[in-house]
Specification:
Elements lengths: L6 H24 L3 H20 L5 H4 L4
């Protein structure tokens, strides 16, 4: 004989499991310490400054007219 399953409870269990999976993913993506966020921000600033410093002048500046 088959086991009787309460569909309402089964749906709730499934929803809880999905929410737990989403929460785990968010913790992995956003659960960083302040030091890690600061380090990443500093690295991004350093890369931006490096790229800005290596930028070629525009066409008018390169020709000596501007």
């Amino acid at each position: 004989m088959a086991e009787i399953v309460n569909l309402r409870l089964a749906r709730k269990r499934k929803a809880r499991a999905e929410q737990a999976a989403v929460a785990a993913t968010n913790r992995a993506l956003h659960g960083r310490t302040a030091a890690e966020r600061d380090r990443d921000r500093q690295e991004a600033d350093r890369a931006r400054r490096t790229l800005d410093g290596a930028r070629l002048p525009s066409g008018t500046e390169r020709d000596g007219q501007g």
